[in-house]
Write a structure and sequence with these properties.
The protein contains 7 helices and 9 strands. It is an alpha/beta fold. The strands form 2 sheets. The protein has a 7-stranded mixed sheet.
Length: 228
């Protein structure tokens, strides 16, 4: 599978985007390999991956903003989804460290793959970190490269800890706003929403329902493409 070059430059939002990426590059340089576990475990990435593997089977999985490749390794071990299994990361040192595990350099707003390259796409606890406007592009890109289904989690509250005085969750919205954005981008797809604790089914029948949810619960949205 070919991987095209990616640029983080954009006339409308390059400064915000560059600053956002620079924060995480700086953070990883400072924390080093000690950050690998936290990058992967934050928000229960493995738990969500195992949950999806109960239902997903096919060929190709892309994990956007993967951090370390533990989730991809879990997919490989399961045998339920065949290669290509790819992680996308904007931090060069992480790409170099995990290249042999399928991690490539790329941007969430401009994935370096052709349309319909994978059966499944995921992005866990990444979208709230993106510059304003890139959240829509990321969701559109996941839809573009995924044939069967996409799953994302998005935090609803500020990050518990920042970095050098900067808040890391720079794209915070009310859950109703995320519902509207996801519903518009994935119009015609079946959209389900589950609470992180796996006890609160919140969407069904391809139709978003109004449900009261604690702001401290991170929702998992699962979008399934219509059968062709």
């Amino acid at each position: 599978m070919s991987v095209r070059d990616v640029s983080f430059n954009d006339e409308e939002s390059s400064m915000n985007r560059k600053e956002e990426i620079a924060v995480y590059v700086d953070r990883h340089k400072s924390i080093g390999k000690q950050s690998s576990k936290s990058l992967n475990d934050l928000g229960g990435r493995l738990r969500r991956t195992h949950r999806l593997l109960k239902h997903w089977e096919g060929t190709g999985w892309i994990d956007v903003g993967c951090g370390s490749p533990q989730s991809l390794s879990a997919v490989r071990r399961s045998g339920r989804v065949a290669e290509p299994l790819v992680g996308v990361e904007p931090i060069p040192t992480l790409v170099k460290q995990y290249a042999e595990h399928g991690v490539v350099f790329g941007a969430a707003h401009d994935l370096p793959f052709p349309d319909d390259s994978f059966d499944y796409g995921t992005s866990f606890d990444v979208i709230e970190h993106l510059a304003i406007g890139d959240e829509v592009l990321c969701l559109e890109e996941l839809k573009r490269v995924s044939r069967k289904a996409v799953a994302v989690t998005i935090a609803l509250t500020p990050a518990r800890s920042g970095w050098k005085g900067q808040q890391l969750h720079i794209n915070l919205r009310r859950i109703e706003e995320w519902d509207a954005i996801i519903g518009r981008i994935y119009e015609g797809w079946d959209v389900q929403k589950l609470a992180l604790n796996n006890k609160l089914p919140m969407i069904g029948g391809g139709k978003i329902q109004k449900v009261v949810i604690s702001m401290h619960v991170t929702p998992l949205w699962i979008m399934t493409a219509p059968t062709k």
